[in-house]
Design brief:
By secondary structure, this protein is an alpha+beta fold. 34% of the residues lie in helices and 35% in strands. It has a six-stranded mixed sheet, sandwiched between helices. The longest helix is centred in the first third of the chain and has 20 residues, at 3-22.
């Protein structure tokens, strides 16, 4: 992957992690990977909820929503990764309600001032989280 894309993706993940922290979640893991199955961008916990969040950054929102990139194959992999993570860590986190989110991240320039009102903004990035996305 191109270093610039990786850097921008990392900035988007940082903004999404800040969103979850602002909502009172503890960030349990970032970029958690299991063998060759793939990775989960953010795993966060709060109370009896554990969230597995896929972060999607797009430079603009003209053509499609970032969440549309989370297709059924990606959803299936994230569900499997969540199952493995919870089985491996049940002694640490106990029984939790599992939620699958998609965090869409766009630069502020993709929005008008009135559209940004009420959205989470961090470091010139706008974060919009779709809870229970799949």
């Amino acid at each position: 992957m191109d270093n610039n894309k990786r850097h921008i993706g990392s900035l988007g993940e940082n903004a999404a992690a800040e969103f979850y922290a602002s909502e009172g979640f503890d960030i349990l893991k970032r970029n958690w990977r299991y063998k060759r199955l793939g990775e989960v961008d953010i795993i966060a916990g709060k109370g009896d909820v554990i969230v597995f969040s896929e972060v999607k950054f797009r430079s603009e929102k003209k053509f499609s929503q970032a969440s549309e990139a989370v297709n059924s194959d990606k959803q299936r992999r994230i569900r499997k990764l969540a199952e493995i993570f919870t089985l491996q860590n049940c002694s640490l986190y106990g029984e939790k309600y599992v939620r699958f989110d998609v965090a869409e991240v766009y630069p502020c320039s993709a929005y008008t001032k009135s559209e940004i009102s009420g959205l989470f903004v961090s470091d010139d990035m706008v974060v919009s989280v779709i809870e229970n996305a799949f």
